[in-house]
């Protein structure tokens, strides 16, 4: 079994995003070579971290997180403005 660092939340998110159907925890654990408890912890952590974020924009070396509203695109502003 892989430890928590190896299982990784990003791999889990990528697997979940690739499917439109509910995923079996045992199957996810087997795919990521970890146990179901690790999957549950990663899901809890991802949910907790992202619960207040409605929208993400990334560009020009910055990231903007919208909370409860859709954010405007990041715009490049000339230095000094």
Q: What can be said about this structure in brief?
A:
By secondary structure, this protein is α+β, with helices and mostly antiparallel strands. It is 44% helix and 12% strand.
Morphology call: elongated
The percent range for strand residues is: 5-15%
Specify Rg, calculated over alpha carbons.
17 Å
Helix fraction, binned, reads: 40-55%
- Class by alpha and beta content: alpha+beta
The strand order across the widest sheet is: 1-2
The count of β-strands is 2
Largest sheet: 2 strands, antiparallel
H-E string: HHHHEE
C-alpha termini separation:
53 Å
Average the pLDDT over all residues and give the rounded result: 76
Count of runs of 4 or more consecutive helical residues: 4
Low-pLDDT ranges: none
**Structural domains: how many:** 2
How would you describe this protein?
The chain is of the alpha+beta class. The protein has 2 domains: 4-50; 52-81, no CATH class. 44% of the residues lie in helices and 12% in strands. The chain is built from 4 helices and 2 strands; from the N terminus they run H-H-H-H-E-E. It has helices at residues 4-7, 9-17, 25-32, 36-50; strands at 55-59, 62-66. It has a two-stranded antiparallel ribbon. A hairpin with a 2-residue loop joins strand 1 (55-59) and strand 2 (62-66). Helix 3 (25-32) packs across helix 4 (36-50). The radius of gyration is 17 Å and the shape is elongated. The termini are far apart. The model has no long low-confidence stretch (mean pLDDT 76).
